[in-house]
Amino acid sequence: MLRNYLFLFGIGVIWGSQFIFQQMAVADLSPVWVGAGRSLVGFMTLAVICQVLRIKSNGGQWFKFSLIGLLEATIPFVLVAWGQQYLDTAIAAILMGTIPFFTVILAPLVIRGAKITFAGMGSVLLGFAGLLTLFYPELMSGSGSANLLAAGAIVFAAACFAVALLLLKGVHSEHPLVIARNVLGCASAQIVLFALIVSPVNEVTPTTSSLMAITYLGMLCAGLVYFLYMVLIRDAGPVFASMNNYLVPMIGVLLGATINGEALTAYTWVALGVILMAVAFNQFFSRKEAQAA
Fold first, then answer.
1. N or C end of the chain, less CB within 10 A?
2. Distance (Å, rounded) from C-alpha 154 to C-alpha 94?
3. H or E segment and range at residue 119
4. What is the CA radius of gyration of the chain?
5. What are the extents of the domains in the chain?
6. b/e string for 146-184 if b means 16 or more Cβ within 10 A?
7. What integer is the mean pLDDT of 169-173?
8. Phi-psi domain of 261 (left: phi exceeds 0; alpha: psi -120 through 50; beta: other)
9. Residue 35 has pLDDT above 80, yes or no
10. How far apart are CA 92 and CA 233, in angstroms?
11. Torsion-angle region of residue 273: left (phi > 0), alpha (psi -120 to 50) or beta?
């Protein structure tokens, strides 16, 4: 039992810390090369893990992997990195904490027979209230248009990630680590091709800190964390593993305040609390609805 909690906390710290390292990387590199480096290092890390564990692919389903890679990695890796040029890490962490709400809203469009339940609708409304609270000052003053655009980019990235999670349910007969590896492999090809078009290699001047940040983002946040997540699901179940939805935004906010020294307003803390309440609302009432069915 203790190991499960340690794994859960470790996953929350790794995913919650990505915003700190991503901001470090975009200080020297364009967002598209940050995304490309992260996906490439993540793909190579998972390839090594699969090789060491002797996990082999059954082949096929490459169109699905390419589509999921586009939505789970290509678009989010680039947009979140771009948005973090204009937003604090704490804000980015809270915005990415909206992924569970998008899975609720978009599930009926992606999965046949899926419906929006009372638990889902309630959590979405609470989550939307949290977003309004977060950006209330900018909305009322009419200022901070760049911040709102960056926030919109990260929210769109969260929506893309949510669709990818739903599409993953349609991938069959493959080990989860192979799926993660193949998805990141397809995403790497997509992002590198895009990066070569919009930002030639001769314009890329990485520093030691940005290279270290990308290595961390790839090896841990896009590589090792998937292995830990799969082990946690195997040992403790998907419901327990999904509790990382509480930890990631909370840890992102705390790291932003402590390591980056970000001055967090009352709106930020209230928004974080509301969004965490929304996640809790969804999990609690979804369990009730499942028991009643």
1. C
2. 10
3. helix 118-134
4. 19
5. 2-292
6. ebbebbebbbbbbbbbbbbbbbbeebeebebbbbbbbbb
7. 83
8. left
9. yes
10. 26
11. alpha
**Short-list 77, 31, 69, 68, CA closest to 189:** 69
Q: Tokens standing for 248?
A: 């990631």
Tell me the two tokens of residue 134: 């977060």
Residues 6+ apart with CB under 8 A from 266: none
Q: Tokens for 139?
A: 């909305």
* Cα–Cα distances in angstroms (integers) from residue 19 to residues 12, 59, 95, 131, 286, in the given order: 12, 34, 11, 18, 30
Q: How far apart are CA 29 and CA 21, in angstroms?
A: 12
What pTM, to 2 d.p., does this model score? Answer: 0.87
Res. 19 pLDDT band, cuts 50 70 90: very high
Q: How many residues does the chain have?
A: 293
- Name the token pair of 251: 């840890």
Residue type, 209: S
| Mean confidence (pLDDT) of the chain | 88
Three-state SS letters, 199-228: CCHHHCCCCHHHHHHHHHHHHHHHHHHHHH
Can you say whether the dihedral through the CA atoms of 278, 283, 289, 293 is positive or negative? positive
